Amino acid sequence: MSSNPSFPVTNKNISLEIKGNKTDVVICSYDDHFFVIATQIGTMGTILKARKDEGMLTEPTFDVSVIVGKRDEPMLVVCARQLIEQISLSGSTKSLILALGLKDHSVETVKGIVAAVVENRLW
User: Fold this and answer.
1) Model confidence over 36-46: pLDDT tens digits?
2) A Pfam family in this protein (predicted)?
């Protein structure tokens, strides 16, 4: 894990192995959103946006949408939903932009990515 405090955007870089695949994770914190890249293939892959919707009389809901990339891969949406829920539970109201370039779309991979991001969170 490394952090670069001199860069204008607060960020962390993590490299780990998930199910035998080297996984690089970059977490950036902007004023209005978090940007997370998790890649096993060296590119950003599918890009998703997640945000919390709050109603006055209802429990909050979480909206996740695919901006670019695989629209038929439910585990990518699950990953984004898990991360925005963690962000919300911490009290932050920022939205999330998530880029996932994964070789393996299994539950274990998603759990590993979520755990790594939450452990090294910037919120």
Assistant:
1) 999 999 999 99
2) PAC3
